[in-house]
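User: Can you write out an input/output pair for a complex, sequences first and structure second?

Assistant: Here is one pair. Inputs:
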Amino acid sequence: MQFSGGNRRRLRLGGDQRNACYPHSLQFYLEPPSENISLIEFESLAIDRVKLLKTVENLGVSHVKGTEQYQSKLEAEIRRLKFSFRVKNEYERRRRDHISHFILRLAYCQSEDLRRWFIQQEMDLLRFRFSILPKDKIQSFLKDSHLHFEAISYEERSLREHEIIASSTSSSASKSELELESVYKIPFADALDLFRGRKVYLEDGFAYVPLKDIVAIVLNEFRAKLSKALALTARSLPAVQSDERLQPLLNHLSHSYTGQDYSTQGNAGKISLDQIDSLSTKSFPPCMRQLHKALRENHHLRHGGRMQYGLFLKGIGLTLEQALQFWKQEFIRGKMDPDKFDKGYSYNIRHSFGKEGKRTDYTPFSCMKIILTNPPGQGDYHGCPFRHSDPELLKQKLQSYKISPDGISQILDLVKGTHYQVACQKYFEMTHNVDDCGFSLSHPNQFFFESQRILTGSKDIRKESIQPEAPQPKPSVQKNKDASSALASLNSSLEVDMEGLEDYFNE
Amino acid sequence: METFDPAELPELLKLYYRRLFPYAQYYRWLNYGGVTKNYFQHREFSFTLKDDIYIRYQSFNNQSDLEKEMQKMNPYKIDIGAVYSHRPNQHNTVKLGAFQAQEKELVFDIDMTDYDDVRRCCSSADICSKCWTLMTMAIRIIDRALKEDFGFKHRLWVYSGRRGVHCWVCDESVRKLSSAVRSGIVEYLSLVKDNTKNDKCGPWLEWEIMLQYCFPRLDINVSKGINHLLKSPFSVHPKTGRISVPIDVQKVDQFDPFTVPTISSICRELDTISTNEGKERNEAESDIKHRTRDYKKTSLAPYIKVFEQFLENLDKSRKGELLKKSDLQKDF
């Protein structure tokens, strides 16, 4: 791919040529795209796809894949995310799908974990798309994807009809459907998942696979190809990363939070300090609840805890004055000298509100940031309890929060499967007595907001931000939400800004 | 049947390896027509010597090298391993991680002790003609599946020498199969679980009982590993003295493990023949020529014939493949 800075030059193809480029509504991503796009489009395509894959992940964890519920929810989510947002035609949608996939390869090839995650979500997405592909389009899709699965002739099929039906795992009701379906003859080694469980008819080294089972094989092929491709991509990555326009973007894509930034001052001043104790048990996510408790008990929090909790408090509406009062009161209870607080800690708090130094108004940490960076050590209370707590301790904590044993075991299962945010959603559901929390958790302030919504029954308008989260750039271009600020915002990630602050204060 | 005394092994093995072991056929097998360069040279063998000394990563340059070494070391047991990326006997000189097992026959090991829960006549290492029926059934069931379901053509069944059988599937494509596919094949062939539930009832009860008793029991660990070492055909069983001989699958019902020759019996046969023939041997004649005549005169002969038939089929297949390949090229 070539990148032209800021200049949008798109290939304009005529109708037939466009269809030839993308003859199917889904693809195996065998060929990388070869046009010019702007950096803006590069970035927005990437972010859109990350959002999509995260949705796929979330649904895949909270629903059984392939069920009616899963399928309809995924379809709805894809439309809601408007992955084809502002797209007028099918060609455009397929083009964006194509390009965004390849961009994400660059970001997600970098570690085993990232690769595994990427492959899993892309597979689930492909499975879904394949499942809604009309039957008559399947054969041509397979052919174009260079999958050498030949459908056998009617005569060959009728010779073996009995065996094929007997080997299939469908119920007797759908067995009659089998009689009308195509059957594919493929080398047995290519149908491992089917023949190992004796789910397919084998003859002379070939598996006779009915259409409905061909998906498993297609997915295996896809996984194998993508896995290889990612390994290759990783090897060429240094060349790509040397392009300074791309490097920060790619590095942060996999960690990027792509939702609301909760730094808007819209709800400032709505919380009073004496509400915090009760709010902490009712509406705080466990990470903040434990930080608050530790602060109250020890009259102190270390740097990591102050950052995570302090910014959260700002996000729920504490003003700078309130924050200063809050922290000072607590620290003094711990026999801290008020002067020492003013000299050491208050600067920190004012800095995080954007009133000192660079004057960057820091945004509260997202779940991803809390889970992935700065793990807590001995004497720390920050981090994500679902990620960082010992499971036994987590269990005890949940018991002390009066979560039912059934709920606790569900949560622990999710934690075991590394679905930390879904575990937190489960905690939300248990503490608020709802079956479905109704949102996909990605930010502690989102937890608070949703909790308050239920508890107070209010319908505050949520400020939907299309731009990705970022600390707002320097005051001189503060209100400028155009293309260049979007780019700058992604370039200067939260981590980079935080480094300045951490250097200033050492533990 | 003459008794076998393990104490005699060193002497017996010396004679066996000098006069009876079918090196030519053995090499013909493992060389696979010399189609792939260094296929034989990269094959791992392991030897168990006297006093249980076990040495791995043995490899040989050619048939005569193999002969010399076997005669020198006089192994009690010989195992065959995988074909590696480098000569196994030089594996220490290879860069870490570069020495990899690449190909091997697909092998199965059916052991009578796995049937202990359903046989009352014998247990553990013992076998009798009654429970050997279970083995016959297993061979027929597995062989049919390998041939008809998987399309495997070159299957060598070998008596292990005591209480089981091995199967070596030697098709070219099969030797390249991954560990995952090998596991999958064993899973496909496995039906019996190790449970002893007796509370089944219903219309399928009879079938259930039959399956529970008779269906083959496979050890997945033997089959799935590409680098797994398995007892070699024509190896001697150190406890029973019996030779691991090929089984003619066409006549599997007539195979009787108790009539398989022991090393002491065939050595005795050899002695008898030599004495009868008198001292007519021409000293100039090579050992090899003798050997080709020698085993033919012992009870080993019919088993080597089975082996040779197997090798013929391999050769035929290979020629067929080469012809196909050259045809394709010419067409182009």
